[in-house]
Amino acid sequence: MAPFLESQQMKVNGETEKCRVTVVGSGNWGSVAAKLIASNTLKLSSFHDEVRMWVFEEVLPSGEKLSEAINKNNENVKYLPGIKLGTNVVADPDLEHAVQDANMLVFVTPHQFMEGICRRLVGMIREDAQAISLIKGMEVKMEGPCMISSLITEQLGINCCVLMGANIANEIAVEKFSEATVGYREIRDIAEKWVQLFSTPYFMVSAVQDVEGVELCGTLKNVVAIAAGIVDGLEMGNNTKAAIMRIGLREMKAFSKLLFSSVKDSTFFESCGVADLITTCLGGRNRKCAEAFARNGGKRSFDELEAEMLQGQKLQGVSTAKEVYEVLSHRGWLELFPLFTIVHEISIGRRPPSAIVEFSELKPKFSILESAAQFY
Amino acid sequence: MAPFLESQQMKVNGETEKCRVTVVGSGNWGSVAAKLIASNTLKLSSFHDEVRMWVFEEVLPSGEKLSEAINKNNENVKYLPGIKLGTNVVADPDLEHAVQDANMLVFVTPHQFMEGICRRLVGMIREDAQAISLIKGMEVKMEGPCMISSLITEQLGINCCVLMGANIANEIAVEKFSEATVGYREIRDIAEKWVQLFSTPYFMVSAVQDVEGVELCGTLKNVVAIAAGIVDGLEMGNNTKAAIMRIGLREMKAFSKLLFSSVKDSTFFESCGVADLITTCLGGRNRKCAEAFARNGGKRSFDELEAEMLQGQKLQGVSTAKEVYEVLSHRGWLELFPLFTIVHEISIGRRPPSAIVEFSELKPKFSILESAAQFY
């Protein structure tokens, strides 16, 4: 792993080498990320203008290949229609080719593809490459969460930051004001480079030294969104919804800190924390399906509602709630996380939706692990 | 000031004296507070059953006096119709008489009445009395905020806690789940007494040692609600709204900490902080009027909209924004609080509503006060 600092950039023929960026992924959010980045590489002299974007090739109904359509129209006609990406974005359907010259790799694919992508990239990337993951929704396994940033570092032997926040791709695409948080591990200069690459007047990015905290926010918020949707479905009002969101934020913080002692409270005040939670609990598919679930009195399963309402998209909150529940149960922490626990129990039909506000369930029982009180 | 601890309660004829509670105020929130308290004094042996409630006397259209109507119907027919308060709530139109036997005083009146009430109560209350203020919206004067809790302590010579939170009175009245935060100065046992007095299965109360932080949250959130309403009026979407709410929470925290070094970050994770902010920015009259203001492109003044939309209620966010602006301007802090600053400038027509998201304005300029960075 060879970290680069601005002052330590590799020199070729006596000249400082410019950074080359490749975006690995070209869905809705990946395309918006490419647009943000491409607007900056044109302006910043320390970056090559060209931004390469790896496209998982598809054939469009017209018979045209997606990558060719993107390059011809300068627009991702399938996943971000109507938005020009910048003429310096080059779609490339060949993964290995797309990454080979880049020293800044932006990963933004569905999380279930990352293991396969990493396997393909071993030995194919520059040794001095830096990575950032925009992927929300890593898995929480019994032995702890399987962080995408760790996967990238372990598989590819490169440093990996994360970028999370209240980021509805389509709103950023039309340049509505928004924020995001970069989480970095050690080297502030690298985080600053990513901040520079993503920041625009309508997209404000800050960096915090807390990869795990930032990355966990992006996943755990979906569990809280299920709870918020249930409150909406039961028409309990804004007061109750705000209370449930607050308790959810507290459990996100406590869970993250119990798993990683390096996680900081202040991270939860950043865009990746409270702001992303608000966005996700106001709109978002997890909230929406949970609202429908509660309106039906829990009689129609989440699987059924997901199939009906999401046109093939997956409902991460329910599966994350299940994974979190397994960790809590395995470690004997269920009573410390009454909201996370209830969300899972409601989602599998063991409790009715109205249990979401049962008082006795919502006061963490520190007696089972006294040291846990400090995490609240 | 003679604080009582549970273990140190005054003994009369060898018996521990029970606590007597009086609620000073009988508006919408005051009536709900009396209902909550009355349900607990019946259950808890350390309290007298009776809860006295001072009523600012009015004559109802029927010709009946409000206090008599409350006592006859066991219901505040004017300010909380349809809700039974508990038969142990006794309305009393005589302020001095209402407080004379109480050793726990709950203040819940419009804030502009508190100076007059305190003047009337000097020398009329028990020396060992404890107070709590539920009053949101103290004034922020040039020399700093004029805290209601300080006013009570200074004028009456008694200790004063505060209770704030995401508390829409009508939702709590119908027993929808909600939370609140008690802020206390020194003695944890007194805070616990208040927690006991207010807590019900649908109203969860926690205590934090931070009177100023809790009290400032209750006022400053209204400035953020104006900003959130402007974002709604401009139809900028949930992403932008969440970002503005987050920046607002950050400025609430930084402003409170700059004014009172005792203020704690963790207070802003409590119900009085993030949850009350969410409730106020989702519903609430400040948000609503600001939305209308932005929809009209700032062409109709807040005064005009307030008169039209609020039926005599006052819009606290705009006046608080003005007061905060004066403090910021006086201390040379304007550039540290770009959101608070812009809200005021928009509200007086100096800037257009769209300025709410102008990037260059939203990055605090720490260079003017380097030590301020630690408060963010």
UniProtKB/TrEMBL annotation, chains A, B:
An annotated GO cellular component: cytosol
Residues annotated as binding NAD(+): 25-30, 56, 113, 169, 285, 314, 316
GO BP: carbohydrate metabolic process; glycerol-3-phosphate catabolic process
Active site feature: 221
Key words, A-Z: NAD, Oxidoreductase
Domain annotation Glycerol-3-phosphate dehydrogenase NAD-dependent N-terminal: ranges: 21-185
Coiled-coil segments on the chain, per record: none
EC number: 1.1.1.8
InterPro entries: 6-PGluconate_DH-like_C_sf, 6PGD_dom2, G3P_DH_NAD-dep, G3P_DH_NAD-dep_C, G3P_DH_NAD-dep_euk, G3P_DH_NAD-dep_N, NAD(P)-bd_dom_sf
Catalytically driven reaction(s): sn-glycerol 3-phosphate + NAD(+) = dihydroxyacetone phosphate + NADH + H(+)
Binding site for substrate: 136, 285-286
Every Glycerol-3-phosphate dehydrogenase NAD-dependent C-terminal domain range: 210-358
Family membership: Belongs to the NAD-dependent glycerol-3-phosphate dehydrogenase family.
Protein name according to UniProt: Glycerol-3-phosphate dehydrogenase [NAD(+)]
Organism of provenance: Camellia sinensis var. sinensis
Lineage: Eukaryota, Viridiplantae, Streptophyta, Embryophyta, Tracheophyta
